[in-house]
Amino acid sequence: MSRGFGSQPGSLFLSAGRATMLARPAYWAALCGMVAWAGLAEAGGGPQNLLLVVNQRSWASKTIANHYMALRSIPTSNIVYLDWPDDVIKQVPVDTFRKRILGPTLAMIERRGLQDQIDYIVYSADFPYAVALRSDTQGQQHPKFATGVGAINGLTYLGRLVMRKDTRYLKMRINNYARRSGNATGWKSHGFRSWYGWSEEGELLDAGGEHYWLSMMLAATTGRGNSVAEAIACLKRSVAADGTRPQGTFYFASSNDPRSKARAPAFDATVKMLQALGARGEIIRGTFPRGRDDILGLTLGTPNVPLKQSGSTILPGAICDNLTSYGGALEERTNQTPLTDFLRFGAAAASGTVVEPYLIPAKFPFPFLHVHYVRGCSLAESFYQSVAGPYQLLIVGDPLCRPWAFRPKISVEGADLTKPLQGVVTLKPTADWSGQRQTGGFELFVDGQRRTSCKPGETLRLDTRSLVDGYHELRVVATEDDPVESQGEVRFSIHTNNYGREIRFSIEPQTPTIGSDESLRLTADAPGAEQIAFFQASRLLGTVRGQSGTLTVRCEKLGHGPVLLRAVGIVQNDPRKVVVADPRRVEVVPAAPLKRLDRPIWKDLEPGFLVQNRKGKTVAVEQSHQENWLEVAGVGRNEPYRVTGYFFVPKAEVYQFQIRPSGRAILRVDDRQIADVANPAKSFDIHYVTVNLEDGLHRFEIHGQTNDRPRLQVRFGGAGARRIGKATCRHAPL
Fold first, then answer.
1. 655: domain CATH number?
2. Are residue 581 and residue 607 in the same domain, yes or no?
3. Are 704 and 657 found together in one domain?
4. What is the residue-wise DSSP string for 3-60?
5. 556 and 652 inside one domain
6. Cα angle value 51/65/214 (rounded, 5°)
7. Is 622 in the same domain as 722?
8. Do 665 and 714 have their domain in common?
9. Which of 199, 297, 521, 687 has the fewest CB atoms within 10 Å, i.e. is most exposed?
10. Distance (Å, rounded) from C-alpha 414 to C-alpha 425?
């Protein structure tokens, strides 16, 4: 079954015919679908097929997304910004997940006309990773092992069933895309499309069948998570690994642990398959390979993995999978090795269940996932071809990583794309895969949306009159004529001029980098426009009335890293007068770090922190895990309070506070106010606050005023944000 070359997609994303709708609030987020550079992209599942979901409230989520957009050239039309104000560690009810996360994401795919091309739905950091399924399962009979907690990406993969409240998503063989032995599919690897339908036998159907979306999280930075710096380093390593066909070994650990025994019968066959592909696999006796510097992949089964003590090295692009009960449970007090440890030590991705899985192998990847990977499948394709019942599996890392990708050299003849385009443009693409590989077809994307397609030797036709004037991004994608369907692409920045519209866009200060504590002034002039809209990727930053104006933006709102900024001039009732400016990119860097304290000395302090109530009474608190800890410490309703403590940071970098007050709270670090946040009555939203710190000792202070519900939740950290208490804070002796 082909990918439908020659078929016509839905309406173009930034077409002139749809531009009149852009003045409506619902369409602001769908306006900027452009990328700022051109060049050959490595095959990896297709950035134009990936939708990235970002928590616009979280600095970590925005910063990681900023870097991933730039690293993978994700079209800005494929970025969705949601506002998730609640905890990301506690389980979110499935009805809330549908209403606040999955439902709006799927609605945005349809609204932007991307339903024919989105195959991956990927979450940046700071979304809830575990979903409570009680409202779906109550009153139903399910096996004991079908426990009522799912993972955010497993449930997104099965999102069509989840949206219908069809609890077949709990079944252990619900994933028909998973390759199976003993039938016609054997262990054949296959590329993925969300519109592909799969039979119960794993066959690709011409019509009907089950449909899915590949889904992962880029990073987890709360609880037992990674730091933002670690997450970015992980993604950079993964991108650099694409197409390198690395040399190393896939290790399969065999021991007497039942977790290992569950998958051990498949080890021999997997190693033989890897050897047939020119790769090396090895079955070791024990729980983890020691003293090895060539780890390309791991299949383990042990509750505690001695990563630091092993003397081994995980190579870029590696997949690490460990079958244990709580590898994907990132609560602070869970004691098994979390999947995030593998990412910290170099893996491109790792997985684990978010709740006790009852040692059901169908909930974990079959060892053959490494074979799919070596055959050229993307990391996400490899995972989901290997797990039959994925609803509880959390997968974190780079879904597009593809170390064994074949990268074609794509050429495009026809129109001169360096000059402004008018009327109908015809392009003739060719692709050189080297060797015996052949092209199955080409697709043309404009501003991130699939426009048309053709077969080898045919041409791509683009009517530029359907586009508004100004800047657009054009990408031509070649797909290999092979079941794995490897992809390659080439991108061009183009300009169209059918209606004589112009826009000038500038940024002050004119500097490649700017501190997060500074402001940017965005200025645009679009003669004849009624208003001008400014965007960060697809996120509306603000508008100005008239044909020219300036918008001032605090950089702390943007997250750190490479930020893509856009300006669009709009006339509501005349789509020919809409015009798009060339994008501008600026690097937002941390503000100057706060210096460490010389006094007191950490060893002279006592565990925990101090709370002072309105009567001036001060008590020491050692843990804040209970919801009512502030009340237990003597703070009542509608009362002021003061929380103080010291913390020690091991390295100089940006750290994050997550603060949830009932009422108002002012946060100071080292006597500098860094936040003043407030929640109205009956609200308990999280506020994310960053601070750049030198390594060493620092002091925090919170001045608060409760409302009718005396509550306060504070997390702090770099490599994971954890609740304040004796494990993270100290205080002066009372």
1. 2.60.120.380
2. no
3. yes
4. --TT---S--TTBGGGGGGGGSHHHHTTS----S--EEE--SS-GGGEEEEEETT-HH
5. no
6. 30
7. yes
8. yes
9. 521
10. 8
What's the pLDDT tens digit per position in 98-141? 999 999 999 999 999 999 999 999 999 999 999 999 999 998 88
| Coil vs helix vs strand at 502 | coil
Instruction: Calculate the dihedral angle through the C-alpha atoms of 259, 265, 269, 270, rounding to the nearest 10 degrees.
Output: -10
* The predicted structure's pLDDT at residue 11: 29
Structure tokens at 342: 């593998």
pTM: 0.94
Closest CA to 149 of 175, 171, 129, 130: 130
The whole-chain average pLDDT of the chain stands at: 91
What is the total count of domains within the chain? Answer: 2
**DSSP secondary structure code for residue 136 in this structure:** H
Query: What residue type is 602 in one-letter code?
Result: W
Cα(396)–Cα(81) distance, integer angstroms: 19
Residues sharing a CB contact under 8 Å with residue 452, sequence separation 6 or more, in sequence order = 8, 9, 443, 444, 460, 461, 462
Count of helix runs (H) and strand runs (E) in the chain: 14, 44
Cα separation, 368 vs 180, in Å, equals 10
How far apart are alpha carbons 69 and 51 in whole angstroms?
A: 10
The percent of residues above 90 in pLDDT, for the chain, comes to 86
Domain that holds residue 676: 602-731
CATH number of the domain bearing residue 508 = 2.60.40.10
Name the burial class of residue 265, with classes exposed (0-12), middle (13-18) and buried (19+) by CB atoms within 10 angstroms of its CB.
Answer: exposed
Q: Write the burial class of residue 554 (CB in 10 Å: 0-12 exposed, 13-18 middle, 19+ buried).
A: exposed
Q: Is residue 181 part of a domain?
A: no
With CA atoms as reference, report the closest residue to 61 among 236, 214, 232, 317: 232
Same domain, 577 and 618: no
Q: Does residue 706 share a domain with residue 636?
A: yes
